[in-house]
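Today's session is about reading a structure prediction critically. Students often jump straight to the picture, but the first step is always the sequence itself: look for stretches that repeat, for charged clusters, for runs of hydrophobic residues. Only then move on to the predicted structure, which in these notes is written as discrete structure tokens rather than atom positions. Here is the chain we will use throughout the hour.
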Amino acid sequence: MEEKVIYAVVAFSAIIFLVSLRYLLKSSTQETNTRQLVKQAMIATLYIAITWVFRAVSFHAIQFRLSEALLVLVLFNPKFVSGLTLGTFIANVLLSDLGIIDWTLGTMASLIAMLLMIKTKNNIPITLSIPAIMNGIIIGLELTYLFETPFIINALSVFVGELDVLVVFGYGLYKTVENNKKFRQLISQ
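Below is the predicted structure for this chain, in token form.
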């Protein structure tokens, strides 16, 4: 990989880390910080485990990454941006054969999607389409760069897979959390 691309990827990684850390450090007490760290670790681990179980369909142009359904949790607690970003990064490092470019761009796509989801959380159809749009564009460009395949094919295939996951599983998770007052309270703290 070209040296300039590696430098850009490292710079993006640093930005991703700093933006996601911002959401985690909004708590004021040590007890709250410890509780938040545990929640973030649990969310990251869950994301990694789901991606690992379904790794055969979680990468490349045909993506049906079920762990992306967890992104709806940021609608109930924006601090989950940290755990989900970490989970995305670790899953990509451990499981993607596309290397550092995928580790960074894949993580960046999810981070941008979550930040936009938080801003549009009052319009669930739009909110659920944001990860599909961001991953379609960013991962579509990545796949085009790596494999020299047509962008439109890459973008559409990633978009459709991501949209399927968010509409079916993400919306199901969203409604389950929304309708479960105790669980919603637990994750909102």
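Discussion point for the tutorial: The helical segments are 3-24, 30-53, 80-95, 100-119, 124-147, 151-179, 181-188.
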